[in-house]
Specification:
This protein has one domain: Rossmann fold, CATH 3.40.50. Helix content is about 55%, strand content about 15%. It is globular. The longest helix has 26 residues. A five-stranded parallel β-sheet has the order 3-4-2-5-6, sandwiched between helices. By secondary structure, the chain is an alpha/beta fold. It binds thymidine-5'-diphosphate (TYD). The site of thymidine-5'-diphosphate has 12 residues, from α4.
Length: about 230
């Protein structure tokens, strides 16, 4: 059987406190233990420019209108795709990103009211028309998210402070966005971290199944086409 290089772009989405970081760390460990090429990343702030943009976004001293805010996320995304996402996909890596284009649709679009079609258009341009193969949405209710942030971390980030009263709108936005999308899987974020990781891993396996590839734990084999 012949090993096949086949990149996968997977975005993890959800409200703040939904456990994205835990899932990403667990998935990374698991995929690495299967000897699979994996890179974990995030938006905003994965590149050198992105780190500066992230500081601009959290700096409250400079008034930022909604269009400018979205374009800062867009600039971060463009650099992210240029420097990391596209080169890694070309190498056949599984790229797992903490947030991506759907976060702009949910936060700047549904939550804050920016035109959804314009966001889609600019997102697509920034991403060189590459869309996530798989979006994993960690579904959580507002109260649990706020309790988790307060109890586990103690303090809220500037982003979280801004949204705490309107998290329910954000949740409705994500749910509307992900209705009838065949590249999205929804996982109950109240499940334990191991179950969440296994469901996410299964979704990755299902993606490769559709392409007739199987994930093998054999250390010498990566993705292998069952046809070959
Ligand atoms: P971060 O501290 O990374 O939060 P989290 O760990 O929840 O991802 O901050 C990212 C914040 O930026 C988060 O509140 C969501 C927001 N955001 C947008 O508003 N639009 C976007 O396009 C992206 C990628 C993030």
């Amino acid at each position: 059987m012949k090993a096949v290089n086949n990149g996968l772009l997977c975005a993890i989405e959800g409200i703040d406190g939904s456990g994205k970081t835990t899932l990403i760390n667990n998935l990374q460990k698991q995929l690495k233990s299967l000897q699979l090429p994996v890179v974990t990343t995030k938006e905003p702030g994965a590149t050198k420019l992105g780190k500066k943009i992230r500081c601009m976004l959290t700096d409250r001293t400079a008034p930022t209108c909604l269009k400018a805010e979205f374009l800062l996320f867009g600039a971060d995304r463009a650099q992210h795709f240029h420097d990391l996402v596209i080169p890694e996909l070309k190498k056949g890596t599984i790229v797992i990103s903490d947030r991506m284009s759907d976060s702009s649709l949910a936060y700047q679009g549904f939550l804050k009211g920016l035109d959804l079609e314009m966001i889609r258009l600019i997102n697509n341009w920034c991403m060189e028309s590459v869309q996530p193969d798989l979006v994993i949405y960690l579904k959580l209710d507002t109260q649990t998210a706020l309790d988790r942030i307060k109890n586990i971390r103690g303090i809220m980030t500037k982003f979280e402070e801004e949204f705490q009263d309107r998290m329910h709108i954000l949740i409705q936005g994500f749910e509307k966005l992900f209705q009838n999308r065949d590249n999205v899987i929804v996982i109950d974020a109240l499940e334990n971290p191991k179950t969440i990781m296994q469901q996410a891993l299964q979704a990755i396996q299902n993606f490769y199944n559709k392409k007739n590839y199987v994930i093998q734990s054999n250390p010498t084999t990566q993705f292998t086409s069952v046809d070959q």
